[in-house]
Amino acid sequence: HVGHVRYLQAARAEGDVLVVGINSDASTRKLKGEGRPVLTERARAALVAALAAVNYVVIFDELDVKPLLNELQPDIHAKGTDYTPEMLPERDVAQRLGIRIAIVGDPKHHSTRDILARLRPRRDA
């Protein structure tokens, strides 16, 4: 959705190269519940990779990006405005590795959950 596009554009503006981590189908299901993801990991990766702001896409199985940060050791770790630096699960890893945390994107007024809710027929109708 448009919030993801704006978030990724803002993340790219923070550095020279943007590597986007995409949750695998299995980790998305664990995080979001049954019926998710709507698109397969490969489809989501292809859509994200097609965005001009994105240089690379990595699919990861873990529930958070700590292992990915340890492996890639980027200069900057961008997260959306639904986070604060203090509440990031990966904050400890970023601090240990000297990774700057950037909170980017527009306010969280977009969600896949809300889009899906509008598309599904109401049961009480």
Low-confidence regions: none
Q: What's the mean pLDDT score?
A: 90
Q: Which of globular, elongated, flat, extended, rod-shaped describes the shape?
A: globular
Write the element-wise H/E pattern from the N-terminal end onward: HEHHEHEHEH
How would you characterize this protein structure?
It is a single chain. This protein is an alpha/beta fold. Helix content is 41%, strand content 16%. The strands form two sheets. A two-stranded parallel sheet has the order 1-2. The protein has a two-stranded parallel sheet with strand order 3-4. It is globular and about 50 Å long.
Key traits:
single chain, 125 residues, two-stranded parallel ribbon, 6 helices, globular
